[in-house]
Amino acid sequence: MPNPTSATSPSRPVTGSDRLWDSVVGGDLAFLLARANAVSLGRANAVLAEHGLKVRSYSVLSLAAGDSRPTQRELSEFLRLDPSQIVSLIDELERAGLVSREPDPNDRRANVVVVTEEGRRVHAAARAGAEASERAMFGVLDPDDHSRLESVLRAIATETPPAS
Amino acid sequence: MPNPTSATSPSRPVTGSDRLWDSVVGGDLAFLLARANAVSLGRANAVLAEHGLKVRSYSVLSLAAGDSRPTQRELSEFLRLDPSQIVSLIDELERAGLVSREPDPNDRRANVVVVTEEGRRVHAAARAGAEASERAMFGVLDPDDHSRLESVLRAIATETPPAS
DNA sequence: TATTGTTATACTCTATAACTATA
DNA sequence: TATAGTTATAGAGTATAACAATA
After folding, report:
1. Who touches strand C, with Cβ under 7 Å?
2. What is this structure's pTM?
3. pLDDT single digits (tens) B133-159
């Protein structure tokens, strides 16, 4: 399979390194996945920065805004982040007045994360931006391809991690 | 769309955080992309570790093994890593005797990275492992879905990065 | 004894700037 | 004046262990 960039992105200034696409890694799905993710992450962070958020804090805010009253432990499991990282993310969101910690009535060890009114407003605005950015990347897909991509990614994403 | 993990990964122990899939992020393509990439990266690193490599060093080794004699600058551009990161990656590979730096006859400022015989052997073995691991993840796709996924990812991956 | 949130620490990654030798 | 490789450094991100309160 010959140089794919020249076919898919003809307007981009061609650099000398484009010839390296003709290598093993160039056709590697894992490599493309990493690349695509980097682009996606960069765009999302750029959009979210306008709302004082990053992908991480936006994820936590979204989950809090879902009114499911997650505990920090649940956030940690779901986002696959260490509990200590959740602490700093919530500290940050709490300082910004977007969420607050409430004691879990079922377990006095646990905190439950709830969104504030301000948090709801910021989340709504940030979500609109994030979705627009997502449409800019994935919107070209017809609904069929879109749902196919979603199910493929979900299948990989929900595979149990390497049994270490 | 209700809890997808229970549908796609029924054997995984169900944790309390699975209920959070019913949130905005749960259906977010960017989120799924990040997850899928994390899984893919983790598996690749686990496999490559058996050969003393990581994804980064394997990529450099692969490009060197492609006999295209890339300069460090080209590797930096292609892999989107800072030139200084390429330096340490090549230092590492050179110490392990897998690649060597040769002066570029066309430009005395530049080095060209070439694979050694030992590097070729290690690369062949590592590549076999990496491809097996890739088949374990993506092999379930029929050829049609496989090429569709490849073209979608490539399209996103080769988009020009956010015009900062 | 085990678990939740927390703190502290160290280690990897990433980004930036400066320097040299060439162009 | 600009570019290739290198070095140094600081920041972000990540992983680990320990601790107090609670289960």
Report:
1. A 71-73, 76, 83-84, 87, 90-91, 101, 104, 107, 109-111; B 54, 56, 81-82, 84-85, 107-109
2. 0.88
3. 999 988 888 898 899 999 999 999 887
